[in-house]
Amino acid sequence: MKPVTLTTLKEMKRRGEKITCLTAYDYSFASLLDRAGIDTILVGDSLGMVIQGHDSTLPVTVAEMAYHGKCVARGVKRAFLYVDMPFMSYQESPQRALASAGRLMRLGGAKMVKLEGGEPMAETVRFLVDRGIPVCAHLGLIPQSVHQLGGYRVQGREAADAKRIRHDAKVMQESGASLLILEAVPAELAKTITGDLAIPTIGIGAGKDCDGQVLVLQDMLGIYPQPSPKFSKNFMEGAANIDAAVKAFITAVKSGSFPGPEHSYYSDDHG
Ligand code: KIV
Question: Is 139 in the pocket of ligand 1 (CB under 6 A)?
Answer without folding.
Answer: no
